[in-house]
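Checked the freezer inventory, then went back to the computational side. Two predictions to log before the end of the day. The first one is the construct we discussed on Monday; recording sequence and tokens without edits.
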Amino acid sequence: MTTDEREITAPVDLCRADGRLEPEAVGWSRRPLHRSRIPGWGRTKRWEYWCVTTPTHLVALTVSDLDFLALNTVYVLEFGPDGREFERTAIVPGGPGTALPDAVAGAPGCAPVVVGPERPVRGQVRVEIRSEGTGTRLRARCLAPDDRLPVEVDLLVGMDEGHETLSVVVPWSERRFQYTSKQTARPASGTVRIGSRVLEFGDDAWGTLDHGRGRWPRSVEWNWGAASGRTDGRTVGLQFGGRWTRGTGSTENALCVDGRLSKIGEELEWDWSPEDHLAPWRVRTPDGDAVDLVFTPFHNRSVRTEAVLLANRTDQCFGHWSGTVRTDDGERIGVDGLLGWAEDVRMRW
């Protein structure tokens, strides 16, 4: 094993009845096992973020409840100089109509999540997350911001039997903590329609989930990197985090190779230019060879928000990962142009 963190193997409550972190919840697991009911109100953040990629385009869907408001988003990016990019975000003050479950939305046995009107108009957004077989059905509707063309997302993200994912609790204190389930290398299929145009998601489409439930500090900074696909004859998922976990004793770092998870307990070393996010990034384990990768971006999704209760500076760069990783059993895997992203975020919320 490449971590001293405690592996959780049985269901556990995230919180005590008074909303404090349950000490037995601190650790990580290979599948979601935490019951993440968080009683009370204030500083609680809940979200489901899905990004489904292909070699030529991607779509990302977000449903989030920040206690004082909800943010529901559809983002589409077509790669290349003539590719289309747009984002439609519905801001819902107070968050009425956004009810996220304690479990991972879209997991078998979990009630569907549906937000927004069935036929959205103007800046409204509709998102549906439902269990379908062993996978997750993602549907969304909105109007494209520039030309108001109707946008329809209909994707199925599969989950192969025995496929392992990373779930982990990051404890800042007994009153501030985050439970996240990061799921990479899940095969996807379906379409995104923009007016009469259809973007296909076929054999080379991959879904990544960021599921979050927690109580956060007012201000925080983080790095997040992820990628999914086939490389060196293997199916590989990369999941890396940085900055926000420092000093907690937990990390959100892991590899998934052919469905088997290797947990990395070491904090990664992130080297990038905040002045030029499109310059190459390097991510590595400073005291070993579990991760030694270069990320080469080709597009920066830059978001700047300044509001009374919310300030967000996000640079989410899409690009390709190359280098080597090493699994728990010592096998070195060559990573050659694996499509994914790396981001630099500062949040006040």
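The second is the one RB wanted added to the comparison set:
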Amino acid sequence: MNAMKRAAAALAAVAALFVAGCSSSGDDGTPGPSGRPDDRKVSGLRGMTLPSWNTDDYSSPQAATYLRQIADTGARWVTFTPTWYQDRVTDSAIRTTEETASDDSLRHIIALAHSAGLKTMVKPHVDLVKGGDRAEIRPRDTDAWFDAYRRFITHYAQLAADTGVEQLAVGTELAGTSGDGDHWGETIAAVREHYKGPLTYAANYDEYRKIRFWKDLDLIGIDAYWPLGDKATADTARLRQAWQPITDELAAFSAKQHRKILFTEAGYVSQRGTTTAPYSWTVSRRDGGAEQAAAYEALLATFDGKPWWAGVCWWMWDDWPDSGETAKKLAYTPHGKPAEKVLRHWWGKS
């Protein structure tokens, strides 16, 4: 994470292809008869992200515990985020580091998730070695960067196919390159040669309207970190009101693109002021558990049941032992906080 009409008939056709809302079940995410995006079925997501920061996170003893805890919230999906790195925003080389989840560990946790009754999405990330915003990646040599990126993403496409992953993201928040429809179209075609399941791209909330390749994908993915005001609040009604113009915009965008919208990420730290900058890990040092819970409630109450909304994958569950840079009581995790009770209420595990 770093810190959306045509005719009603057309929208109805889209709804027929996909399960309505995040509470749906039964669809297995497999391709339709022709394998084209418009013929696929994509499950609604009640999801949680479990990112990795080290080679062996996903094979650690804590992995099975985290997955059981996630399933206990009522979640049906879990997202994994293997990450490769580049040194500078202008570079073309992308590589693994000691912070990249090993393939064996990723296979291990996918199998554990399936054993826990969870469906899986793999959402590979590209980050910068010394930190910074991946949205700023603008390679000097575009062709070379996309060649490297295709090797990276088709590697995970094949791993996803081999392990029965139910959904794959072809990219995350790469706003510096995502306007290049031709290169991305070629990349998505290469991914489909390896992986036949549903595909999305995780666009940042201020990026999704600039993308030209939604037609090549099965779902519009948005990392939904919209600021909901300029003052801290735990007033759910105010937060729902703030969502309303965004909701109208997303409904129209979904209809225009003939695709449902999945919140590939959404989340709030448990810090006072989190709703003013949901993309920030460090809004304040003051406890904001009530504000985090209100933000969860407002999002789910606003979007639940919308026929064009495909669900949410929250950022994020607990950090791995000794790896968290933010204290758990202030971090994005809802675990053990009022926000977890909100999830359990909405997802049927109260």
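For RB: The chain is about 35% helix and 15% strand. Confidence is low (pLDDT under 50) at residues 3-43. Let me know if you want it refolded.
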